[in-house]
Design a protein that fits this description.
alpha+beta; two-stranded parallel sheet; globular
């Protein structure tokens, strides 16, 4: 029996050079984002840098990244009750330039593809999200093909 939840989250690994979704994991929205970091960062990913938003930052994840030889480029949280130090804000801004490529995936899926996941059960949501990621990759492929044809 499927347990209804009130949303699903699409965790993606995006190729920095071409913008393709290389891997994804769908989870229910009640699950903490940081818990899924190990599931989406795979050994076949040749990049040593891991970039993500603040939801993925934890002592456990930072230790795991160091142990596996990865460099954490995960955003820092603002200190509670205090303004964010200027150094930390500048570091987050630099990280955001790269993370914008990942946000592009979500914006494309929501705005232009009209993705709304209204399913009961994680398996169905994962199938729908997976198909949306595949459709996004096909759009990226066509974009790069057209660009190459124009440059030739």
């Amino acid at each position: 029996m499927a347990i209804p939840v009130f949303g699903y989250t699409n965790h993606v690994v995006v190729d920095r050079r071409y913008g393709f979704v290389r891997a994804f994991k769908a989870t229910d929205a009640a699950r903490h984002d940081g818990a899924g970091l190990r599931e989406i960062v795979s050994r076949d990913n040749t990049a040593s840098d891991v970039r993500a938003d603040t939801a993925y930052r934890s002592k456990k994840n930072e230790a795991w990244l160091r142990k596996t030889g990865r460099v954490s480029r995960i955003h820092h949280r603002k200190p509670r009750g205090r303004p964010m130090p200027e150094r930390m804000a500048k570091a987050n801004a630099a990280k955001s330039r790269v993370r914008a490529h990942v946000e592009h995936v979500f914006a494309q899926q929501k705005d232009q593809m009209g993705l709304v996941v209204r399913t009961i059960g994680l398996e169905r949501a994962e199938a729908k999200i997976g198909l949306a990621n595949l459709a996004y990759n096909l759009q990226r492929y066509l974009f790069h093909e057209r660009r190459a044809a124009q440059g030739a």
